[in-house]
Amino acid sequence: MKHQEAAAPEESDTAVEPDDVRASLGRRRRILVWVVAGAVALTGAGVVLATTIRSPAQVAADAAPPPASVLADRVERRVLTSSVVVRGTVAAEQSLTVSPGAGAAAAAGTGGKPVVTRVNKQPGAAVQAGDVLVEVSGRPVFALPGSLPVYRDLKPGATGKDVGQLQEGLKALGHPTGKDPSGTYGAGTKTAVAALYAALGYTPRPADPGDAEKLQAAEDAADTAQRGVTTAKSALAKAKAGGGTDTAEAQQQLTFAQQDLAKATTRLEAARAAAGPMVPADELVFVKGFPARVDAVKAAVGEVVPDGLLTLSAGAPVIRASLPAHQKDLVKAGMKVEVLSEATGLTATGTVASVATAPAPASGGAVPGGSGGPGSGGSGAGAGSGAGENAAQDSGGYALTVTPGQTLDARLSGQGVRLTVTAASSGEPVLVVPLSAVSAGADGRTTVTVLGKDPAAADARRRVEVRAGMSADGMVQVEPVGGGALADGDRVLVAQAKP
């Protein structure tokens, strides 16, 4: 029993020992954590110091400028062209707005507004020379070839280029104008006009409704004068036969009678020259080329004739555009043009036909005249405007007309196209470089700098003296001079950016 009691304290000492061990381990862990934290802190401080503290050499290196960047481009051998690009519209060479006036109604005796009595050509129909387009108040409106617009009635005795144009149209339809000189509406032209109207199935209008009465009066006056001369001659013969003293008086009466006859004959000839069929302005349309085409008809049979009753397209297709003022002097007649329709991909070539010398008016509206020029009577059948002129021109732009070099695809009609006008060309391949690659020195020499394999290596560069030629689109033609060498593919200095 005593042995067991003595052993009890030993078991008690052994039970206290694990708590001490744990306390010792806890202290060690805390010490380790502080050591690690201190190491981390020291490391961070070292990093911060490393980024803020630099050696003098490092400071100088950081302050040095970056290497200069070099911009270079390649020397090319090609045809250099200067181009002007504008938008245009494909349209007929001529567009006519046919607006018959009140003359037809007056001729028909209705005294009111003109009325459509027949439509011979519907929209889309082809028109040939001599075709009747429409009938207004019983009177025809027909087409003849000609570039001049209709601006007046063509009557017997009239002279001018429009009369000559009428005569050529009559002859083309098989109605000769006799011995009438070109541009003179004489007896032969009257006969031809009467024959044309008869072929169309109409009676021509007289130049003056009172022509018949005037002509009859002139003929009566001439007959009376002729009888007066005959009577005076008989009186003179009797006076001479009788040996009387009144011979001188009889002779004087004969002289007066002959003078009266001469005057009456002159008046009769004038009346005859003025009388006859005329071609009213509201019955004739001069068209540049056939076949023409009816684009629109605004009224049906029985309706009052509106302004712009018919619209015609005529002549070969052309392309109309507008040049801004700064490009107007760059484009000349005869220059080559490339045509592209972005919508269809169709291409064509052409030639500049004309460039207007004055800008288009700021306001829109048709230009009078069937050929697109001034001078047309607004009430005539041929009043109209050049096709697409105002549609293709910008306000204040200069009208540009391009003639296609071949027949255009029908799908291009009325389409907008891109026109590239070759304003200048080197003609053959030449060496070209960017404009910025050429420099002029104080000695007046023009040079380019050819780079070596390493563009940044200044010691590998060489300067080549050149003679500059035409420039276009940021490029310039160059030719080496003074024995310098420059070839297609060389790299030349365009710019060097300084730090």
Walkthrough of the structure:
The structure is a single chain. Helices cover 32% and strands 28% of the residues. The protein is built from nine helices and 21 strands. A six-stranded antiparallel sheet has the order 2-16-20-19-18-17, with no helix packed on it.
Helix fraction, binned, reads 25-40%
- Strands, count: 21
State the low-pLDDT regions, or none: 1-16, 363-379, 384-394
Biggest sheet strand order reads 2-16-20-19-18-17
End-to-end Cα distance: 103 Å
Strand content: 25-35%
Taking the sheet with the most strands, its summary is: 6 strands, antiparallel
Overall geometry comes to elongated
Note the total helix count. 9
Order of helices and strands: HHEEEHEEEEHHHHEEEHEEEHEEEEEEEE
Spatial extent as radius of gyration: 50 Å
What's the average pLDDT?
Answer: 81
Given helix and strand content, the structural type is: alpha+beta
Topology:
Blueprint: H1 2-52, H2 56-63, E1 69-74, E2 76-78, E3 81-98, H3 103-108, E4 116-119, E5 126-127, E6 132-136, E7 139-145, H4 161-172, H5 187-200, H6 211-242, H7 247-274, E8 284-287, E9 292-297, E10 310-323, H8 325-328, E11 336-340, E12 347-355, E13 384-385, H9 389-392, E14 398-404, E15 416-425, E16 430-434, E17 439-440, E18 446-450, E19 462-472, E20 475-480, E21 491-497
Parallel strand pairs: 7-8
Antiparallel strand pairs: 1-21, 2-16, 3-10, 3-13, 3-15, 4-6, 5-9, 6-7, 9-10, 10-14, 11-12, 11-15, 12-14, 16-20, 17-18, 18-19, 19-20
Helix pairs in contact: 6-7
